[in-house]
Design a protein that fits this description.
The structure holds two protein chains of two kinds. Chain A is of the alpha/beta class. In chain A, 20% of the residues lie in helices and 30% in strands. Chain A is built from five helices and nine strands, in the order βααβββαβββββαα. The N and C termini of chain A lie close together (10 Å). Helices cover 33% and strands 30% of the residues of chain B. The longest helix of chain B is centred in the middle third of the chain and has 17 residues. Chain B is globular. Classes of the chains: A alpha/beta, B alpha/beta. Chains A and B meet through helix 1, helix 2, strand 5, strand 6 and helix 4 of A and helix 4 and strand 5 of B.
């Protein structure tokens, strides 16, 4: 197993790294030391990794939208991918899914509607922390795993790719642990 | 970037301020909410009247904004304070010391979005033991100025947070699951000195207890002195 934690914040090594990447790193390193943290501008050989986690970003950061070509590897990647917030939006964009305006800030509960290993030992309804202004509209390539009317977690129909709009590093560490153990 | 810091005088907002400076940001001002509600979910109240002295030690301007502390109305008051900071000091973003409280964090995020300014929470979800160790290693001088739950007693008030206390807190965490960084509201702290302080503060006072496990440090003297 080798995990890549990909920092999607506009700049490397900023205060935002402490807020959006370090919490993920703290969860990952409790499970394995075999991980790396990189920024999406770094040169990457994703074939080295079995799991990739794409971090969230601050509400006002949409810089990643200008560099979607840097994520084209997601389509052919054979390992497991978990996109969080901006990471989820990038996954949706790469697969040409509909991205709509959908603001959610703070705690809420969501319904888990489809069985999946990522939900092991998690109960529905699930309390989650949201921090996003965009969401998913109509989906062609993904199944909805949580919140059918306003999807919060979706999974590719044939690949091991999860797109999670909420921030599991805040209230749902188990979800990230389950992903790493896939 | 020019930032304002949501400042309570305690360890969290002081360390968030320090991190922002370490990352090269210009701190334009401190914004402190003076709440009349001792039970406020949003804002620390013990020690708040002395933040002016901390601002002097830090050599930073202070906006000290009054709020009745009524739930949700106090958030509107915070928005007004940050708007004042934006107009008066040109802040482009806000730094908060939020660690685990989704209640605080989501309200600060919403206000920043409404004011179209950046929102930084550099302590978000930080490992609490590592946080306290970082404070001690970076020579912050932290005093307990209020205790609000078992097993804390009068003897803890005015004590300094140091390596010895951290060992005790780790033991108490194992026994009672209390938060080493007091995120459960178990205690409140006041910073009297730090690596970014140009001067320091001397506090004198006596514990004033409501019950065996709840009381505050009644500060009779608070003096800014040279380091």
């Amino acid at each position: 197993m080798k995990i890549l934690l990909l920092n999607l914040c506009q700049k490397k090594d900023t205060l935002h790294h402490l807020e959006f990447v370090r919490p993920l790193e703290n969860i990952v390193k409790k499970i394995t030391e075999n991980y790396e943290v990189k920024h999406y501008f770094d040169s990457l050989d994703v074939k080295e990794y079995t799991h990739v986690i794409l971090s969230g970003v601050p509400l006002k950061d949409f810089d990643y939208e200008n560099y979607l070509d840097k994520f084209s590897w997601i389509k052919e990647f054979e390992g497991n991918v978990l996109g969080i917030c901006a990471g989820a939006q990038i996954i949706g964009s790469i697969f040409e899914e509909e991205i709509i305006n959908s603001k959610k800030i703070g705690l809420q509960t969501i319904d888990l509607v489809k069985k999946d290993k990522i939900f092991n030992e998690l109960q529905s309804p699930l309390e989650i922390y949201g921090l996003h202004t965009k969401g998913f509209g109509k989906l062609k390539h993904f199944d909805i795993l949580a919140n059918p009317k306003k999807p919060e977690l979706i999974k590719h129909k044939t690949k091991k790719i999860y797109a999670c709009l909420f921030h599991p590093e805040v209230r749902n560490h188990k979800l990230i642990e389950n992903f790493i153990n896939l | 970037m020019k930032l304002g810091v949501l400042y309570s005088g305690g360890k969290d907002s002081n360390y968030a301020l320090y991190l922002a400076q370490q990352h090269g940001h210009e701190i334009s001002c401190l914004v402190s909410m003076k709440s009349k509600n001792q039970e406020s979910y949003m804002f620390q109240t013990p020690g708040n009247e002395f933040v002016r002295m901390q601002a002097e030690c830090l050599n930073l301007p202070l906006i000290h904004f009054e709020t009745q502390g009524e739930k949700e109305e106090e958030v509107e008051d915070m928005k007004a304070a940050l708007l004042q900071a934006k107009k008066q000091f040109g802040i482009e973003g806000v730094v908060s010391g939020a660690i685990k409280s989704a209640y605080q964090a989501q309200r600060v995020q919403k206000v920043c979005l409404e004011l179209n300014i950046e929102c930084y929470n550099p302590l978000w979800q930080i490992d609490e033991e590592e946080f306290i160790e970082s404070l001690i290693q970076n020579d912050f001088e932290i005093q307990i100025i209020g205790v609000f739950s078992y097993p804390f007693t009068k003897e803890w008030i005015s004590r300094k947070v140091d390596t010895y206390m951290l060992k005790e807190l780790k033991e108490l965490h194992k026994k009672y699951q209390l938060s080493v960084a007091f995120e459960g509201g178990e205690a409140e702290t006041f910073i009297t000195n730090g690596p970014n302080f140009k001067k320091k503060i001397l506090l004198q006072g006596t514990p004033n207890m409501d019950s065996e496990n709840s009381g505050i440090y009644h500060i009779s003297k608070c003096e800014v002195v040279e380091k």
